[in-house]
Amino acid sequence: MTNNRSTSDKILQAAIDLMAEKGYDGTSTKEIAQVAGVNEVTVFRHFGTKGNLLEAALKRNHYAEEMTKLFHDRLVGDLHTDLLLIGRTYHQIMNQNRKLILIAQKGGSSLPEGVSEEADRHPQQLKKLLTDYLMEMSNEGKVMITNPELQALSFMWMHYGAFNSWLSTHVLEEFIEESTRLFARALTP
Amino acid sequence: MTNNRSTSDKILQAAIDLMAEKGYDGTSTKEIAQVAGVNEVTVFRHFGTKGNLLEAALKRNHYAEEMTKLFHDRLVGDLHTDLLLIGRTYHQIMNQNRKLILIAQKGGSSLPEGVSEEADRHPQQLKKLLTDYLMEMSNEGKVMITNPELQALSFMWMHYGAFNSWLSTHVLEEFIEESTRLFARALTP
DNA sequence: TAAAAATGTAAGTAAGTACTTGCATTCAAG
DNA sequence: CTTGAATGCAAGTACTTACTTACATTTTTA
To answer: Which of left, alpha, beta for A23 (phi over 0: left; psi -120 to 50: alpha)?
Structure first.
């Protein structure tokens, strides 16, 4: 079709904003064009279909490998310190992708397939990293394990709930500290 | 309009099922009628508008006062025992209302106002009950409090995440036991 | 400045939406 | 058996949707 980066970007951003608020079905191409400040025809010239539009938006938002790198490079082997860093990084990444996550949550009748899978990938990966970390720490006698997978999931679900509550940065930071204390105390032998 | 209970019920159930799966916007009255096994006109004769349909579905699903009763009557003052009962009751209530909660989560362009508020009421209430419980237990020296509100929220968010993951009853029960152990251990002085 | 690419404008298509109307049919209650 | 309520059926309204086509205008590039 065409390629003017700034026009494409304006359209993508408008689509993401609107769909995060009103869902895929509830957002019309006409409205996307209007918010982007272009003609509706231009939307179709750039992306062909409404579905392509969302898929393009997905590709633009690189789900970070940041988390994997963190687990390999920046953990120090102290439970409280590590959980704090993991929690903070988790929210940082989730916030970057908040709108796409919202779109996936809301769903839609003709939502392109990749969307839900893409939204699932990240937590799946974190669960594995966190479970492995707990088992390793257990081997070193630094953590009390019963069911490491469920313990990892508890940690993640707790943070996911906080993420969904749109906390202010201040309250969020308080929560991260409080919940880390809680978990570290529960898991320390 | 009219009142044949079994017809109304069939329509309401079809609407709830479809909207929980595809969202309010993504569900057409035509499809609702088809799944309910009635003519589309009958849907409008019973409920007038699509919005009324959802509101009627809301009223049918009585959000339980069960939780309040539980906190007043059935808690015994032992942290582990109480948290276990609270967790189990939480999931029981949430499962009863799963589909309506899904509809509220997905949202929609013309979703009637009451829906989101109704879906919020229950967690709000639980948060207060749980916070008060923790403070009371703290007064008796049975619990170690730092920020009781955040501690209550952590507990709720963790369970909310589990609820959203559609666990089998077996895994869910395992999770409830594991997370209760975890919390009880963290909060015990 | 001239060609080419990107956009705007206007109009239209085909399908779907919520909702209505008029009339025929079923069915239960008096 | 008759009446009236509940439903089915067929058609239609007014509107929105995603998407297309043809042509004129602007902007970029060479």
So the answer is: left
Residue B59: CB atoms within 10 Å? 10
Instruction: Tell me how far CA of residue A169 lies from CA of A63, A166, A174, B10, in angstroms.
Output: 22, 9, 9, 46
Q: How far apart are CA B120 and CA B101, in angstroms?
A: 9
Count CA atoms closer than 13 A to A50's CA, side-chain side.
19
Distances, alpha carbon A5 to alpha carbons A57, A73, B182, in Å: 13, 35, 50
Distance CA(B53)–CA(B42), nearest Å, equals 12
Residue B137 near residue B148, CB atoms below 8 Å = no
Q: Give the type of residue at B50.
A: K
**Partner-chain contact A151 B182, CB within 8 Å:** yes
**Which residue do the tokens 């937590």 mark?**
A123
List the single best residue of B150, B166, B177, B185 to mutate versus A (max A Cβ within 10 A): B150
Q: Give the pLDDT score at A62.
A: 64
CA distance B154 to chain A (A): 6
pTM for the full predicted model? 0.88
Chain A residue numbers touching B158 (CB-CB < 8 A):
154, 157-158, 161
Strand D positions closer than 7 A to protein CB: 5-11, 16-22
Contact A2, A39 (CB under 8 A): no
Q: What does the pLDDT profile of chain B (189 residues) look like in tens digits?
A: 455 668 999 999 999 999 999 999 999 999 999 999 999 999 999 999 999 999 998 887 666 678 888 999 999 999 999 999 999 999 998 888 889 889 999 988 777 777 788 778 888 889 999 999 999 999 999 999 999 999 999 999 999 999 999 899 999 999 999 999 999 999 999
In this structure, the dihedral spanned by the alpha carbons of residues A29, A34, A35 and A37, taken in order and rounded to 10 degrees, is: 120
Among B93, B25, B91, B92, CA closest to B54: B25
